[in-house]
């Protein structure tokens, strides 16, 4: 059997067509737009910066790195702990549920395409409810089993989250494709340095995004919704 190219696998993993259901979630952006807090490109720029610096840089990025190291060491206890911590840092129940749903779909779908004993073990932990898994943890597991190095995996993960946010924004506010991709391009320029910092610091997961958290918690009260959360 030919060895699969890890870059090709990363591209497949990060493709918006990959069926994890990300298109159904805005991570609170819809509620923020409905409240007039994010109305266009200027406010979206700040939202994307927080997504990258806080959500990815301080929470999901460290979770991905820790989960990747745990898988390689076959430290299933450490994997379960970081997954639980990552879920607990999401105060909105809808966001926890959405993140876990995407993580589980990712894990199951990838294992169906590229069976791996380590992914099978992770899914057995899901059956016993020890593992959720959250999206960054599932992404870490899949990337590690695919032979994708940790830095590329983190960069790819950051891209998927930022691109999903921009895609949601284009459906929620008057934002043309050119302006949307200009904002995305600007934010993506900072991703490699952020990934290097996350990997060098080996920090624990943490989170402080109060405005985003409040938006996520009030998403359920939006009168007419396009997104689940």
Mean pLDDT metric: 93
Return the CATH topology: Urease accessory protein UreF
DSSP strand tally: 0
By DSSP (H or I, 4+ residues per run), the number of helices equals 11
Oligomer: single chain
What would CATH call the class? Mainly Alpha
Structural class: mainly alpha
Could you state the CATH homologous superfamily? Urease accessory protein UreF
Biggest sheet details: none
Shape summary: globular
Q: What's the order of the H and E elements?
A: HHHHHHHHHHH
Provide the number of structural domains: 1
Please render the helix and strand layout as text.
Layout: H1 6-14, H2 29-34, H3 41-72, H4 76-88, H5 93-113, H6 117-127, H7 135-145, H8 150-172, H9 177-188, H10 191-201, H11 210-218
Fold and architecture overview:
By secondary structure, this protein is an all-alpha fold. The chain has one domain: Urease accessory protein UreF (Orthogonal Bundle), CATH 1.10.4190.10. 69% of the residues lie in helices and 0% in strands. It contains eleven helices and no strands. The chain has helices at residues 6-14, 29-34, 41-72, 76-88, 93-113, 117-127, 135-145, 150-172, 177-188, 191-201, 210-218. Helix 8 (150-172) crosses helix 10 (191-201). The chain is globular, with a radius of gyration of 17 Å. The model has no long low-confidence stretch (mean pLDDT 93).
């Amino acid at each position: 059997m030919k060895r699969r190219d890890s870059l090709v696998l990363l591209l497949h993993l990060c493709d918006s067509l990959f069926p994890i259901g990300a298109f159904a979630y805005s991570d609170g952006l819809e509620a923020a737009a409905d409240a007039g807090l994010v109305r266009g490109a200027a406010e979206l720029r700040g939202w994307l910066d927080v997504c990258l610096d806080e959500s990815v840089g301080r929470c999901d990025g460290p979770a991905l790195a820790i989960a990747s190291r745990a898988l390689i060491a076959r430290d299933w206890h450490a994997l379960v702990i970081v997954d639980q911590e990552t879920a607990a840092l999401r105060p909105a129940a809808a966001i926890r549920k959405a993140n876990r749903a995407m993580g589980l779909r990712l894990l199951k779908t990838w294992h169906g395409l590229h069976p791996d004993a380590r992914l099978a073990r992770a899914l057995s932990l899901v059956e016993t409810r020890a593992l959720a898994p959250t999206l960054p943890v599932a992404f870490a597991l899949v990337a590690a089993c695919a032979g994708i190095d940790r830095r590329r995996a983190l960069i790819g993960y950051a891209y998927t989250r930022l691109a999903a946010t921009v895609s949601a924004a284009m459906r929620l506010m008057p934002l043309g494709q050119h302006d949307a991709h200009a904002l995305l391009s600007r934010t993506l320029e900072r991703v490699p340095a952020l990934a290097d910092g996350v990997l060098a610091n080996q920090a624990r997961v943490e989170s402080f995004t109060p405005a985003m958290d409040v938006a996520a918690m009030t998403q359920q009260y939006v009168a007419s919704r396009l997104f689940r959360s």
